[in-house]
Design brief:
The chain has 107 residues and is an all-alpha fold. It contains six helices and no strands.
Length: 107
């Protein structure tokens, strides 16, 4: 019986020594879903049709982005020298753009 206990203890010690702590740690991975979808052949076939279908909406959003960026920079740059009427006009533009982005459904 003593021999059996010693054998089990020796086996446990040897096994614990063979297995490193990093081998016991969980493996964590990252999957880039966007890269996977972009590399699919179906994506290459469908993408031109989607771009063509939504060309007008893409152009409108791009134009709005440029306008908003321009007027935000203008407000930051010229805020000290702007009249109260100019500031209110800019605020109206910002509010109208916010309203457009909330109300426009995607076709």
């Amino acid at each position: 019986m003593k021999l059996f206990k010693k054998s089990v203890a020796a086996a446990a010690i040897l096994t614990a020594g063979l297995v490193s702590p990093s081998a016991l740690a969980e493996k964590v991975g990252y999957v880039n879903i966007q890269a996977i979808f972009q590399s699919l052949p179906q994506t290459a076939a469908v993408e031109p049709a989607l771009r063509d279908e939504f060309k007008d909406q893409i152009q409108e959003v791009t134009r709005l982005e440029k306008d908003i960026k321009y007027y935000m920079e203008k407000q930051q740059r010229d805020a000290a020298t702007m009249s109260e009427a100019e500031k209110q006009e800019l605020q109206k533009k910002f509010k109208s753009w916010a309203k457009i982005t909330r109300q426009k459904p995607v076709n």
